[in-house]
Amino acid sequence: MSEIIGGVSHIDCDELQHILQSSNNKTLVIDVREPEEYIAGHIPGIPLIPMNDIPYYIGDFDMEREYVFVCRSGGRSYQVARYFKHNGFDKVHNYSGGMLEWCYDIAEGPENIIQEFDPARLERK
C-alpha cells in the first residue's frame, strides 16, 4: 500500500506491476536513470528521461496526467516526484523500491530513450 513521504506518494513493486498490467490505467511510468543504467536493464515498455533532462521538459508534461517515477533505488525518482509537485503536478508517485527491488520482467537495450520530448512516446503500448 502506498505511503506518503515528504508529500509524495510512494508505491511498491506489486502496486507498480498492477498499474502496468491494467490496460485502462493511463498512468505514465517514467524511468529517470542514466542511459547506461536503462540499457543494462529496465521495466519493459517504459521510457527513459534522465533526471537531469526533466527540467528541460517540465513545461511539456500534461499536468492532468498521473505519473510514477522509477530509478535504481528510489532516491532520484523521489527527487523528480518532488520537483513535479513543486511545479504544480498533483498526481505523482515514487516507485520506492527502484530497480533493485523490481521482481518482474526486465528488458535490456535502448528500447525507448527520450532524446527529444514527444508525449506519444510516454504512453505504454
UniProtKB/TrEMBL annotation:
Highest taxon, organism lineage: Bacteria
Domain Rhodanese: 23-104
Record-annotated membrane-spanning stretches: none
Family matches, as SMART domains: RHOD (SM00450)
InterPro entries recorded: GlpE_sulfurtransferase (IPR050229), Rhodanese-like_dom (IPR001763), Rhodanese-like_dom_sf (IPR036873)
A Pfam match: Rhodanese
PANTHER family: FAD-DEPENDENT OXIDOREDUCTASE, SULFURTRANSFERASE YTWF-RELATED
Protein name: Rhodanese-like domain-containing protein
Organism of derivation: Paenibacillus lutimineralis
